[in-house]
Automatic annotation (TrEMBL):
<keyword id="KW-0732">Signal</keyword>
<feature type="binding site">
    <location>
        <position position="112"/>
    </location>
    <ligand>
        <name>Zn(2+)</name>
    </ligand>
</feature>
<feature type="binding site">
    <location>
        <position position="114"/>
    </location>
    <ligand>
        <name>Zn(2+)</name>
    </ligand>
</feature>
<comment type="subunit">
    <text>Monomer.</text>
</comment>
<comment type="similarity">
    <text>Belongs to the metallo-beta-lactamase superfamily. Class-B beta-lactamase family.</text>
</comment>
<feature type="signal peptide">
    <location>
        <begin position="1"/>
        <end position="21"/>
    </location>
</feature>
<keyword id="KW-0574">Periplasm</keyword>
<feature type="domain" description="Metallo-beta-lactamase">
    <location>
        <begin position="66"/>
        <end position="237"/>
    </location>
</feature>
<protein>
    <recommendedName>
        <fullName>beta-lactamase</fullName>
        <ecNumber>3.5.2.6</ecNumber>
    </recommendedName>
</protein>
<keyword id="KW-0862">Zinc</keyword>
<dbReference type="InterPro" id="IPR001279">
    <property type="entry name" value="Metallo-B-lactamas"/>
</dbReference>
<dbReference type="InterPro" id="IPR058199">
    <property type="entry name" value="BlaB//VIM/IMP-1"/>
</dbReference>
<dbReference type="GO" id="GO:0017001">
    <property type="term" value="P:antibiotic catabolic process"/>
</dbReference>
<keyword id="KW-0378">Hydrolase</keyword>
<keyword id="KW-0046">Antibiotic resistance</keyword>
<dbReference type="GO" id="GO:0046872">
    <property type="term" value="F:metal ion binding"/>
</dbReference>
<keyword id="KW-0479">Metal-binding</keyword>
Amino acid sequence: MRPLPHSYLKSLVICLLTAFAALTPVVNSGVQAAQPKDVPVTFTAITQGVWMHTSMKHMENWGHVPSNGLIVEKGDFSILVDTAWDDPQTAQIIEWSKDTLKKPIRWAVFTHAHDDKMGGVAALRQQGIVTYAAADSNRMAPQNGLTPAEHDLIFDSEHSTSVLHPLVIFDPGPGHTRDNIVVGLPEQGIVFGGCLIRPSGSTSLGNTADADLAHWKTAVLAVAQRFAEAQQIIPSHGPMAGRELFELTAQLAEKASIPSTP
């Protein structure tokens, strides 16, 4: 693997140090810790040409919740996988890709119609960025107060599409939501599982308001089979880990699908 350019590393260090400083609580000072709206979006190098963006939102039932997406370089531009929580945060991603990465976002794809994945679609469309999502996501987005993507993804008989090559976009069926999809980068051995895949240490499936608990495990196993060579698995709400995230999520889904006894 080629070493990361110095400019990339410099910008990454600045982003991470800024985020760490903002998130670190102030003890016995009388100063309130920064809220997520004040915390900048951070960018983490995964491998050459692949970055993870992370944005924060405070949710009443969950506290401060990070949400991940990807930026994948392609020639002189980049492809965005999922927005940040809202338009202002997504504008930070657009600016960073253009001014720091020097590869402006040209295409974007979203993994389901919740605000952690599509909350910033309007910011992208205002910049003329070409946007894609599953047809179900685009139908449900307005119902959820979200801007839909311009284009519906069209999947082949194996429930995949490479319309945004090098991304392999896969529809595993319902799980976290009925419209959830995942994104693979086979050459790099990476799968972005979105909210279908739970992070390390999870003891529950998280938000199941729109879930299909009966099919969630099947969807996870389908992703594991479709990307059998992938070793780096990225969930929406936690750090990247290995294939053990498939097993963890499948176990949680199986447990959640069993009806509770009276």
